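In this supplementary section we document a worked example of the pipeline. Step one takes a protein sequence of length 226 as its only input; no multiple sequence alignment statistics are reported here. Step two produces a three-dimensional model, which step three serialises into structure tokens for compact storage. The input and output of this example are shown verbatim.
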Amino acid sequence: MSFVDELREALLPARMRLFSSRLFQALVSDEKAPLDLWRVYLWESYHYVKHNGINQALAVLRTDPTEKRLMIRYLKHALEEIDHDEMCLRDLEKLGVPRQEVFASRPLPETAAFSSFLYDFVMRDNPIGRLGYSFWAEGFNEESGYIVDRLRYHFGLPDDHMQFVVAHAHLDARHGKECAETIERFATTQADRDAILYFGVATCHQFYYVLEAMYERSLRERAARA
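The serialised model returned by step three reads:
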């Protein structure tokens, strides 16, 4: 078994738990989900996605300067992540949410904790471990087409109103493949592999609570308007 296969197997329980979250279950249900759920998802996604390019690039600071190929891969990925928060903002604007309102807001504690965990691991632990997060976050390409179809069903929005998810359905297939190749090529020590395994499973586990918090926020806001 290759290390990538070992990682995929180790991630399976945490990934299945993500699919059990109330947010995901609302999207796979035949009962129409409220548009508010999509708005909250975009809003909170903006708050963590805006950090992804930065914490990915920070991995370069703690990488051996002789590992130039690895640093190039980190920076290339960071550049491709750096404007994904703009997709969230544009989609929110099409729902009538001004970007200044999003800028002025604070993330949910679970969302903030997730971003903090990424920064903390890159800066204080083995930065190559961040590839474990990229591996599962970019590796939903098997489900991404299905998720986009369910969003169309639930919300009736055109694709140019759901660019954050529609664009990722195309990007993630390539990013997932590149991440697997990077892991196979550069995670050559047991310490590196242990870091990737730990951080991959830990971030996938923690993201479940982000999705649950998003769902709870949508319930609170709906109840406040009722």
